[in-house]
């Protein structure tokens, strides 16, 4: 998920676990720890990593639950030595640190990008694909809870009117906690709704694909940007891939599918390349292969079908060039082909909004 979401989620769970008198410190600590796993991108930049390494190792070791648990224990041990607050309430602060770190990859696993939760165990990234990487309906309740909890955090008891001040402090602490709990509850319920929505879409897709003989074909479903009402389903086929969309607001009956050709023989020819193998593992095999002519030669471009709308995908790679003998030769570097600019994204978002409410909308131009 986006950085703001991880910040407010980390702050929320840490502040709920820590003592009320430490709430502001916990909000700050949780916000910082909630961003720590994503700092792996800084390392990739400093190391000058190629794009395949950067993309496929992001959400790798830094998002591993065992690694983060060890990090949490190490930070807690340091806190026992150098933090008065942690020494005053060691067990609540241990829980706060663990939750702030571990909720980050667990939430990321609900997106389509994928998260290597059990690294170094050699398993493909977990991609629940029930929420888009940015979804205001998930983030806003958490953000409101954090703002109110910060504002209503207990203050030092004043010397004057101690009874009234203590009462105010207790009420403020309770109000802040209730807002944090409410925000976390609403966001969690929304996440639960996204799972139910995905199950409904998958059931409709499976029923429609049975008529095409593709009920058991590899497929995935994912929400379109910023919502969980319009979904996109991609189904792999021997000669390409089918794309269908489903609005939970307007669509009824069988889904309609569009076949997009893919150069599967060329993909099979380059599948042994190390970079291509890594991409296929990372994407669970959901890639499209198209030829592009560059300087009179055919180049093979692979698209990660999980992120983007046809034909504009966020991650596209030139992986090989065809020689005079018809054989595919690896390119010196696996290069990213940039996605369409702001105008293209605006067209996609307009289409998404229209398609949620209308069953028949022309394809994105």
TrEMBL record:
The chain crosses the membrane at residues 63-80, 92-114, 126-151. Keywords: Membrane, Transmembrane, Transmembrane helix. It holds the Pfam family YdjM. This is Inner membrane protein.
């Amino acid at each position: 998920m986006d950085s703001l979401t991880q910040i407010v989620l980390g702050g929320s769970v840490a502040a709920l676990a820590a003592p009320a008198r430490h709430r502001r410190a916990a909000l700050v600590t949780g916000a910082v720890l909630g961003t720590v796993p994503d700092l792996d991108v800084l390392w990739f930049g400093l190391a000058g990593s190629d794009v395949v390494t950067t993309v496929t190792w992001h959400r790798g070791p830094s998002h591993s639950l065992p690694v983060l648990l060890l990090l949490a224990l190490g930070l807690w041990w340091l806190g026992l030595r150098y933090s008065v607050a942690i020494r005053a309430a060691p067990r609540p602060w241990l829980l706060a640190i663990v939750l702030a770190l571990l909720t980050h990859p667990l939430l990321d696993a609900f997106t389509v990008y994928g998260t290597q939760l059990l690294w170094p165990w050699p398993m493909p990234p977990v991609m629940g694909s029930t929420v888009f990487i940015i979804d205001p309906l998930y983030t806003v309740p958490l953000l409101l809870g954090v703002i109110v909890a910060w504002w209503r955090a207990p203050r030092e008891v004043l010397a004057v009117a101690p009874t009234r001040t203590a009462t105010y402090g207790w009420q403020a602490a309770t109000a802040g906690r209730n807002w944090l709990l409410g925000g976390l509850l609403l966001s969690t319920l929304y996440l639960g709704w996204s799972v139910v929505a995905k199950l409904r879409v998958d059931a409709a897709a499976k029923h429609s694909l049975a008529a095409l003989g593709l009920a058991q074909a590899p497929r995935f479903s994912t929400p379109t940007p910023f919502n969980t009402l319009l979904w996109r389903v991609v189904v792999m086929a021997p000669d390409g891939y089918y794309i269908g969309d489903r609005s939970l607001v307007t669509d009824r009956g069988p889904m309609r599918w569009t076949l997009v050709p893919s150069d599967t023989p060329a993909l099979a020819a380059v599948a042994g390349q190390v970079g291509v193998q890594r991409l296929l593992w990372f994407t669970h095999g959901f890639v499209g292969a198209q030829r592009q002519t560059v300087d009179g030669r055919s180049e093979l471009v692979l698209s990660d079908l999980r992120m983007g709308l046809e034909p504009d995908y966020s991650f596209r790679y030139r992986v090989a060039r065809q020689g005079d003998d018809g054989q595919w030769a690896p390119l010196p570097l696996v290069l990213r082909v940039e996605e369409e600019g702001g105008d293209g994204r605006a067209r996609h978002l307009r289409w998404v909004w229209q398609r949620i409410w209308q069953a028949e909308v022309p394809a994105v131009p």
